[in-house]
């Protein structure tokens, strides 16, 4: 090796040791923002905590009001209606196994938190996805935010919510909503954008209002994509709820986390099996909502209920007149 080459290598090594990008205090800035919000927006966080904890407790009471066999029947009937008899049999076996492992109450606690967080996420995601699909400027802002939320490590979600909401159910719900939001927004925007532009132009040519075009053309055609997003929201909510056991969210996550910290292999495996069964049940049912036949069956039920109510309303005056004549 020549002296010139060695000198060049020494120079590169010296430059690599002495030159660095100046320290960027991102963590300090984030800590300042969290501290400011905690000190100045505390009453808002207390209000959110009260509302969320009250709603989740109410939903948990509903799901645990009946004995396990009663809820197993309800889950089986729901699976029978949406997916057929095979899904009903599998749901009976699955939830029976959960009850046999004495994990049924923890499963209902997890289910209540997953349903509440998924509903909040869908309520936020679908309108935001529609707005992004119909406005290019909004889409340019929303996409990097969704990229950031989707690539953020799961455990990082728990750090700020602990400062805002302490520990328990509420920080788990808030972290779950933020974690499960991106697929709902993305797939709603994608479904709206994939609607054939000629159909939208045809609606505009007939003078249809933008609201009617959205509800009559774009949303029905984008429904499979939107429901795929809802399915992803529910699945991500369940996975995050298991992690939220680290911040004290009751349910299967706490069971798994407690088993890991105490090195209880059997208890952790049973809680894990319960999570898998609940995930399969929710996935099969939520995936079926992308099938139009499910909505057709729901529409048929609503039409029957409406006709029966209309028939009762029409019959009531006649019965009243007959009663009046008889009394006279």
How does this model look, in words?
By secondary structure, the chain is an all-alpha fold. Helix content is 84%, strand content 0%. The protein contains 14 helices and no strands. The chain has helices at 3-18, 26-40, 42-63, 68-82, 85-100, 104-134, 136-151, 158-165, 169-193, 197-205, 210-243, 252-261, 265-288, 292-327. Helix 6 (104-134) packs antiparallel against helix 7 and helix 9 (169-193) packs antiparallel against helix 11 (210-243). It is globular and about 100 Å long. The termini are far apart. Mean pLDDT is 82; it is low at 323-328.
Low-confidence runs: 323-328
Number of strands: 0
Mean pLDDT: 82
Secondary structure category: mainly alpha
Helix content: over 70%
The largest β sheet comes out as: none
List the total number of helices. 14
Q: What is the C-alpha radius of gyration, as a whole number of Å?
A: 27 Å
Task: Tell me the fraction of residues in β-strands, as a range.
Answer: under 5%
User: In one word, what is the shape?
Assistant: globular
Give the helix/strand layout.
Layout: H1 3-18, H2 26-40, H3 42-63, H4 68-82, H5 85-100, H6 104-134, H7 136-151, H8 158-165, H9 169-193, H10 197-205, H11 210-243, H12 252-261, H13 265-288, H14 292-327
Q: What keywords describe this structure?
A:
single chain, 328 residues, mainly alpha
Short description:
By secondary structure, this protein is mainly alpha-helical. It has helices spanning 3-18, 26-40, 42-63, 68-82, 85-100, 104-134, 136-151, 158-165, 169-193, 197-205, 210-243, 252-261, 265-288, 292-327.
